[in-house]
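Minutes, project check-in
Item: structure for the 226-residue chain
Input as provided by the requester:
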Amino acid sequence: MAEKKDYLYGYTPRRLAIGQATIGTLAHVFGRVRSYGLENVPLEGGIVLAFNHFSMIDPPAFGGRCPRRVYFLAKTEIMGVPGLSQFLGFFGTFPVRRGESDREAVRKMREIARAGEALGVFIEGTRQHSGVPGEAMPGAAMVALQENVPVLPAAVRGSESWRAWNFHPVTLAWGEPMRFDGLPANSKGYREATAEIEREIHRLWTWLGEVQAQGRPRGLTVPPRD
């Protein structure tokens, strides 16, 4: 039976299952990925998932663990690699020109959220090499405010030390959805919402440091925001 075509960019549940069974499983095995707070991820409705970013393992780690379909952004340099563009596009990834105004990418981001799907955004815009989360860019907040959807911050720790040959453990923390109903959908609102998202990701990342120091015990609950 042919796949249904009423999903954005052809990213069907079958493709999600294939991605989680292949790429997600490889990330789990090679990164020893452990997640906390997955129960915070709403199973339906438009949402922006805001992540920090250290390593190439981060997208499959988050995407492989998330209980729903995630549409990711990727810089055009990666999507321009022959074969890789088709491979990533098969799993719902689309290109964005880093550091430039890309109206088509913004249109797609808003379309994904408006359609009730989950948009995955690495908020720093590129991988961080300092070992700590970097400055957040306004893209996640902009989509959330323009489309009136929540942002769910999530942090990764350990991937800054991960290499394909060392199997360094990678740990994820999924926070609670954040809404910004009182903020205007303009540059001022984007800045304020982005600052809140950045603070929450730093809080989650700091908590993950404590979790790693304890040996990553199972069954922990992500502490709520104050």
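Outcome recorded: The chain has one domain: 8-213.
No further action items on this chain.
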